[in-house]
Design brief:
443 residues; alpha+beta; four-stranded mixed sheet; globular
Length: 443
């Protein structure tokens, strides 16, 4: 009964915050229908006011709303720039629950008191987010491990948030009838539901660990299945420093650019060679340790992993290769093949794509070093906004989000060099490796 009232209370608070947003857009939409045009500034003010209101709601309510806001922030094909810019500031960082609240969860999952299962376990969480928190422990055979524990009520909270989203989206779709918001909302729902599937996350963690085991100075945690359940993931512990800790990088004499190359190599290998990639490389999910040239990087948390279907990966490889060699026609054919736009839109879109290519291929080295990924995102929104019936598949959204987050990490490491410049030869190497492997594969 208590959980029922909590769900009703949460739903009421969220709905009461969304209604004013809806009516603000309804007012401008009715003016448009009555042929009383509103100035662009009026739309921009409503976009910004609405985005700010949703941002405050997500920060206050946390849980699934933080995650929904983060997903909206990368939908440059749907959301106005005011929304993407504002919601990109959402951080999935919360205060951890006390030990007394998670001990029972561990006891239930492990079948015994955690202090008996492990040689030692820290009662204070090392990290906490919307869906769970991490404790460090040591097994009885001496392995240091990370225990990621799902909160007991998080599935119920997410169900409330997603239920509201499904009811609200059709009402908002009248403002953008050419875009299937319900399809996009369903993609978001599947992504967030998958994030609560710790068994799937454990499988992806181990799979990517195996895939990248041959990369030098790159570490992916190994899963310990004997301590992993539906609500707990146990992996090997990596003692390191946050990748954006520039003071520690300098103290240890680490080559920043070599660190950046190792990170790029790991993620491009995931995307272009393996077709399975972690799509949330924010600074808290990348650590480093060691000094000088021996420094190694570690990628953590595989709750947002995308496995690309083989056919779709081929299309992404073709589009990426065409972009890298500046083949506009090849790029556009690949974009059509991926379902981003129809062939009938190609004639209208080509001049816009050429303009975009020219802008980013004819930069001086100094301009390339100061390239701002947020500015690129705005430019992409500008191009997409001029072409009708464009819907970017979720796979590409996650791909773009991954590189956007990496660009932010690189800027924090060294704001005098652009990570995309360092990435180009590594991306080309992985593209060529993948293309050669597919050519040599038996028919």
């Amino acid at each position: 009964m208590r959980s029922f009232f909590l769900a009703v209370g949460r739903g009421t608070r969220v709905a009461s915050a969304l209604f004013p947003i809806y009516f603000a857009y309804l007012y401008l939409w009715l003016r448009m229908k009555l042929r009383i045009p509103a100035r662009r500034k009026a739309w921009s003010r409503v976009h910004q006011w609405s985005a700010d209101r949703f941002y405050r709601l997500a920060v206050r309510m946390r849980g699934g709303l933080i995650k929904i806001g983060q997903l909206i922030s990368v939908r440059v094909d749907v959301a106005p720039v005011e929304w993407t810019r504002t919601l990109s500031k959402l951080q999935d960082k919360v205060d951890p629950l006390p030990w007394s609240d998670v001990e029972g969860r561990l006891r239930q999952e492990l079948g015994a008191p955690p202090d008996e299962v492990f040689a030692s376990i820290e009662h204070h969480a090392r990290n906490a987010a919307s869906f769970g928190q991490v404790h460090r422990a040591r097994t009885k055979d001496g392995q240091d491990v990370a225990l990621k524990i799902k909160y007991a009520d998080v599935e119920r909270q997410l169900a409330v948030d997603l239920g509201l989203m499904r009811r609200v989206v059709p009402a908002f779709n009248i403002f953008v009838p050419k875009i299937g918001l319900e399809v996009i909302a369903e993609e978001m729902s599947k992504a967030l539901t998958a994030e609560l599937d710790y068994e799937q996350e454990a499988r992806f963690t181990q799979r990517i660990h195996d895939n990248l085991s041959g990369l030098p100075n790159v570490t992916i945690p190994r899963v310990l299945p004997e301590y992993t359940t539906r609500n707990i993931i146990c992996t090997t512990w990596f003692e390191g420093h946050k990748i954006t800790d520039r003071k520690k990088v300098q103290e240890l004499g680490v080559d920043i650019h070599e660190l950046m190359r190792r990170i790029i190599h790991a993620f491009t290998h995931m995307v272009f060679v393996d077709g399975v990639f972690q799509s949330d490389p924010h600074p808290g999910n990348i650590l480093f340790r060691g000094d000088g040239e021996r420094a190694e990087v570690c990628v953590l948390d595989f709750y947002q992993v995308k496995e690309l279907p083989a056919a779709f990966q081929d299309k992404m490889l073709t589009a990426s290769f065409a972009y890298m060699v500046r083949d506009v026609d090849g790029f556009m054919r690949a974009v059509v093949d991926m379902g981003v736009m129809s062939e009938s839109d190609m004639a209208h879109a080509k001049p816009l794509i050429v303009e975009f290519f020219d802008k980013y291929f004819e930069m001086s080295p100094a301009e390339a070093r100061t390239l701002d990924f947020d500015k690129i995102k705005v430019d992409v929104q500008g191009v997409v906004g001029k072409i009708e019936n464009v819907t970017i598949p979720q796979d590409i959204i996650l791909y773009g989000r991954m590189f956007g987050l990496l660009a932010g990490v690189f800027t924090a490491l060294d704001d005098k060099i652009n990570g995309l410049v360092l990435a180009q030869p590594i991306i080309m190497e992985c593209l060529m490796k993948s293309k050669m492997a597919k050519m040599m594969a038996p028919a």
